[in-house]
Every structure is written in C-alpha cells, then in structure tokens.
Amino acid sequence: MTETAFIHRFEPATSAGSPPLLLLHGTGGDENDLLGLGEMISPGSALLSPRGRVLEHGMPRFFRRLAEGVFDEDDVRRRARELGDFVVEARQRYGLAAPVAVGFSNGANIAAALLLLRPEALSGAILLRAMVPLSDPPNPALGGKPVLLLSGQADPIVPASNSARLAALLSDAGARVDHKVLPSGHQLSQADVTLARDWIGSVEAEAA
Length: 208
What we know:
Helix content: 25-40%
CATH superfamily: Alpha/Beta hydrolase fold, catalytic domain
CATH architecture: 3-Layer(aba) Sandwich
Largest sheet: 7 strands, mixed
Number of strands: 11
Strand content: 15-25%
C-alpha cells in the first residue's frame, strides 16, 4: 500500500515540544473536519488527518458497519492494519514521532482498534464517544500508554456499559485510562475541548 492510499491533510508542527496528532473524523466527515479541534487542544502540534476510505451512502467512514453499533469486525481489523501502515509511512515522510490519536465517534472506534491491533502506531489516544470495536479483541501490551476516554451520559448511540467496558479493556491491556462521563449526548461540547486540552498538556509535561 502506498502512503497516498489515504487522502489526507498534514499541518507541520509550529512548536517543538507538542506531540503530533492523528485526527480521525466521525461518519460523514473528512480530512478537514478535526483540524480546528486539533489546533484548539494542542496548539503547535503537527496534525495528520486522513479521510476514511469506506463510503456509507456516500459518507466517509474508517470501517464498515452492519447496522448502527454493529460493526463488520473483519473490516475493522483490515482497516486498522491499513491505517497503521499509513501512520508508519506518514511518520517517515513527515519526520514525526508516534502520534496521539484524536478520534470522534467512528474515528474514535478505529483509534481504539489501532490501540488493540497496532499499538506501536500510537503514543496515546483521545477517544471521543468511542465504543468497543471488537467483540473478541487481542490482548496487546499497551505499556502505560495514556488514553483519555470521554463519553456522553445521554449518548443515544454508545451505551454507558459499552464505554465502561472499553475503559476496562484498555486498562487491562496496560493503558493508563482516564475515563470521564460528561453531561452530554453524542455531539462534542466545550467540556470535551477543555478536558482534552488539559489532558494533552499533562501528557506533554510528563514527556518533557
């Protein structure tokens, strides 16, 4: 697979100490969707933002689903491997450290799958409204990778039990998971931005 297999945007870093971000949009988004969010939560970071390669009624996604909340798990595995390859090649092309994934909804689900299937591709993740991506996940060694999981208390798509299971799954694999449930639905709120910015600041401080 060539690196250009994903249509993507790349914005170079303007601050040497900020971790690169891998921005992963939700259903119907594209490579421009989360650039503003990336700039808000980590000013100065390099931004790598691919467009999902699966179309659902013309809307880009990162993997197929059979129904809302029901994933084509063979496709999840294949697409996570493809995305992992893209990250490796983009890191070489742009001279990047392993990025922190910032994913929303479908993008958060593929980021969670990346952590489980290609953990070496990421240095951490911010998972916004994520679900468990695989019913029979592998048990990777996540070795203390930091993960922020932000769920919506009134989310009609992601049951509270599912996000709690994802937090436990990643914790059991060795990630340092900070799971917060916000008084919101599936859409993002200002609280998501503030919490993500504070969290990534603490990750930066640890790395310094």
